[in-house]
Amino acid sequence: MLNFRQVTPVLLLAIVVAPPAVAQDLAPHRAVYAITTLERGKPDGGTPGTYAYELRLTCDGYVINQRLKLEIAGARARIVSEQQSQMTESRDGKKFSFDHRSTANGKQTSLFRGEALIGDDGSGQARFAEPEGQTAALPAGTLFPVAMARAAIRQARTNEGGLDALFFFGDKVKPPQNVNVVIGKVPKRLADLKIPDGAEALADGRTRIYYRAGFFDAEDKGQGEPAFEMSSVTLDN
Question: Which residues, other chains included, contact 131 with Cβ-Cβ below 8 Å and sequence gap of 6+?
């Protein structure tokens, strides 16, 4: 299995929930990750794709660009799946614009574009330009990607062990998902996860923090398995 979010327009969130730079004031950065497969919970050395992430700071807030590329075995041939996201979020976490698109072998398979606003009472609404005219209600407490990252970082710093939150990403015309995040020590099965060649100095002397998040559709919370899960081993810098 992939140690990444399911193959739909990505959040991801592997990186949105737990960005590479664990600091309260998020630092602008770029990173490219090799996506590996897991066999019985352990890395098996396979590399089916890459994930590229960029966070930029502006006067008004944050710009996030991310791209996930996977090569998936099909019945007759391998399928190249790509998911690209461009997002902006205000510093106060009340305004969020999004553009998510997916392709398979170069052919577009989905497109979601729009803007979400949170009002003074904490609730809000997402309006989609694509598909045109669609809306989604945002209950009080809804967090967008950067706000979600900040919340996870605060919990990690206070050793609270995790958090529950409502998370809106805009990759579907649906209400926010319920997210359960567990934060703690790296499990034994990932303790020996290799640092990428050339990056050893960045990890030297740093504590590794383990994040695991379960995403539940609003109507399914408490009724079994999450819609998907992701995990991230993150440094404390």
Answer: 112, 173
The DSSP symbol for 153 reads H
Distance CA 95, CA 152 (A): 19
Q: pLDDT digit string (tens) for 93-143?
A: 999 999 999 999 999 999 999 999 999 999 999 999 999 999 999 999 999
DSSP string, 184-223: ESPPGGGTTPPPPTT-HHHHTTPPEEEEEEEEE-GGGTTS
pTM of the model: 0.80
In the sheet that 162-167 helps form, which strands lie side by side, from edge to edge? Answer: 142-143, 162-167, 177-184, 208-216, 228-235
